[in-house]
Amino acid sequence: MAGRIDAEYQHLKDRTHRWVVERLDEEGIEVGNTGRDQLADFVRTAAGQHIALNRVPLSTQDLNQLVRDTLDEVTGYGPLEPLLADPRINDILVNGPDSVFIEVAGVLQKASVRFINDDHVVRVIRRMLAPLGRRLDESSPMVDARLPDGSRVNAIIPPLALDGPSISIRKFTGNHLSAQELIDSGSLTEACLDTMVKAVESQRNIIISGGTGTGKTTMLNLISQYIPRQERILTIEDSAELVLNHPHVVRLETRPANTEGRGRISARELVINALRMRPDRIILGEVRSNEIIELLQAMNTGHDGSMSTIHANSTRDALVRIETLLAVSGYEASETAIGRLIGSALDIIIQLERLPDGRRRVSEVVALTPTENDLYHMDYLYRSQA
Q1: Is 197 in contact with 223 (CB distance < 8 Å)?
Q2: Residues 266, 254: contact at Cβ < 8 Å?
Q3: What span, in angstroms and rounded, lies between the C-alpha atoms of 71 and 35?
Q4: Dihedrals φ, ψ of 264, to 5°?
Q5: Sign of CA dihedral 115, 121, 123, 129
Q6: How confident is the model at residue 3 (pLDDT cuts 50, 70, 90)?
Q7: What percent of the chain has pLDDT over 90?
C-alpha cells in the first residue's frame, strides 16, 4: 500500500512540477535572476492552484512537502537537495530512480528520497552539468565534473549503464577534521600524531596509503598543516579537495578533455610544470598513473618533504602498486634499479584502514630504510593496537 501511495505522490510531483514550469514561462520569470523567497511564494501559489483545479485531497503537511519538493526541482537538484545540504553526508550514490544510498560516518545506508523515473535522474544530471559547459547524451554517456561548491560528480547513462542512469557524488567540505577530533574519534593517537608531525617537519617524503574511503585526503590535509610557514607548496589534484591553512600555496588542477576529446591536461604534465615553479614541496592529491615517475624523481632531486596518496591495502601493497605504475608507464629499468629509485625517494608510508563499524584509523607508520639485501626494509615507527 505504501508503495502505491508513494508512486501516486511521485506522479503528482511530476505533474505539479510541469504545471509550475509552465506558469513560470507564462509569467516570464527567469529562475536564475529571481530570489528564492520570491520563487517559493510563486511555487506555493502555483502548486495550490494545480491541487485545487485537479481536486487532489492533500493535507497541509503534504502540501508543504509538495511545495518544498517542487521548489527543489525548480531551483536546484530535486531529490538530491536535502542530501547535499546535510553536512553529515559524505557521499551520495544514485543507482537508479528508486535506489539512492548515502554514506554517513563511513557507513553506507539507503536514503529515503527517490526520483520519479530514469528521465528525472537524467534531468537532474543535466542541470548539474549545464553551468559547467559539459554534456551528457548517447554520444557522450559518461562524465566526470566538479560542482561550483567543489563537490565531485560522476554520471553515467545507458547504454553504458545497463540498469539506468547513475550518479556518484563525493561532497566537498572545507571543514576538515582537526587532529584533536581524529584523536577523540579513535582514528589516531597522540603518539601517532607526534610521529607524523616529526616526519613532516623534518622534510621526509611521505605516501599515505589506504583503501577506498579510508580518509586518505583527510589525513593528507591534516599533516600538510604542519609544513613550516616559510616554505612554498604546490598542490596538484584532479579535483581540488585540499584546504591548506598555509600562507604560500599554489593550487593546480588537472583538466579533462573537451567534447572533441582535446585539451586534456594530465597530472604528469602538471608535476613537470610544477618543478619549474620553484616549489619547496609538491603535494600530489593521488598517484594514479604515469605522474609517479616525475614525483619520485622530484623526491630524489631536492624536493624533500613532498607528499601524495595511493590506493593500497597495506604498506607492502603500496610499494607493489608503485612498481606496477612505473612498469605500465613505460619506465624501463631493472627490478633492482626500480627498487633503489623507490627506496631512495620515499621515506615514510602512513597506512590507513577502515574498520567494519565504519571508523577510519591509522594502522601503521613505517620508515623505509633500504639495505643492500632489502631495498624495502621497513622500520615500524607506529602500530595501532588491535
Answers
A1: yes
A2: yes
A3: 12
A4: -70, 135
A5: positive
A6: very low
A7: 40
